[in-house]
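Researcher: Re-running this chain for the archive, since the previous output was lost when a drive failed. Same request as before.
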Amino acid sequence: MSLTVAFQGVHGAYSEQAVRQHFGDDVTTYPCPSFSDLFDAINNRKVDYGVLPVENALAGAVNQAYELLLDHDLRIQAEIILHVHHALLAPKGTAFADIKQVRSHPQALAQCESYLRRHKILAIPDYDTAGAAKNLAENPTPNTGAIASLLAGQLYDLEVLASEIEDVAFNFTRFFVLGHDDPPRGDYNKTSIVFAVRNRPAALYECLGEFAERGLNLTKLESRPRRNRPWEPIFYLDFEGHWQDTPCQEVLARLLHRTSFIKMLGSYPAVVTKSVGI
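Model: Regenerated structure tokens:
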């Protein structure tokens, strides 16, 4: 029996592409209208796993995703790094010269801005990349295309007029695979935590020093406002290693004493970035 994996968006979304990249084409995908619906699907065990975008190399962190990770008691199972390529799609029989305007998510339009300007194509914001492709397939509009994934073009039987039209090649999105249980260790692992420090000088410095003393490499550190406590930030931190490793156990024990609260989001097999060209 194949796994069922939830993602946010409609079929053809980049998140669904990430699901297929990680689990293979035999996976059953389960689209969710919102990130909250995705978490509900996992919590209610409608699906085996969920795939959540957490940051983009160009646009930065997905803030709502990190807030939901804090609110829910799920475990990160793995990370996925997807190289995002945008395609110009149109109804069958449309020629490139016919395209005068395109619809897509504002972020995708921004990532193709120079390409669109060069070809004098008007950008029209839409709610979603794959949604724009789906709507175009269902309601063809003269001289109109969509910017979305090749998967969306395939699913909605649209013509691919051009591929890899993004202005910057370094366009990667990082996803977490979420589930209920701790995953098996990989050859290369990361641990993700969220914590807050006491309001006194050098509190964060002392926490970070615990990692330095044990030679643990930090791969992410980002602050977010703490809800209901203005101007008291919380910190999301990723570091190399598995919580069962002795240095990692030591640093987590020390952080229990130095932080005002700490939550582990998971220790999981991670992607070696050199293997995906980063």
